[in-house]
Write a structure and sequence with these properties.
With 103 residues, the chain is mostly helical. The protein has one domain: TrpR-like (Trp Operon Repressor, Chain A), CATH 1.10.1270.10.
Length: 103
């Protein structure tokens, strides 16, 4: 966990996110919380993480997502040396979708 981010406001935000139960609720909350470019950037980074997890190469990821190679490298670094947040969620989504993966 990045202790530089940990504070009461961030804890409160994360607790609020954990109350969301459907994709539609997430759309409503994040539409209020984020600008369209912020949300698109987060969605793009998560798409990059999923593709890297599947073994896709950078050129294919650029083609499919429009992400820069710098963004892909940053996400790749997080996958390999980060807090395992991407891996945790990717594996859980795979498990929910019946694709295997550990939670």
């Amino acid at each position: 966990m990045n202790t530089k981010l940990k504070n009461n406001n961030t804890d409160s935000l994360f607790r609020a996110i954990l109350t969301l139960k459907t994709v539609d609720e997430c759309y409503a909350f994040f539409d209020d919380l984020c600008t369209v470019p912020e949300l698109k950037a987060m969605a793009q980074r998560y798409a990059v993480a999923r593709m890297l997890d599947e073994g896709e190469i950078y050129t294919r990821i650029v083609e499919q997502t429009g992400a820069s190679t710098a963004t892909i490298s940053r996400v790749n670094r997080a996958l390999n040396y980060g807090s395992d947040g991407y891996a945790l969620t990717i594996n859980r989504v795979k498990a929910e979708d019946g694709e295997g993966g550990a939670s």
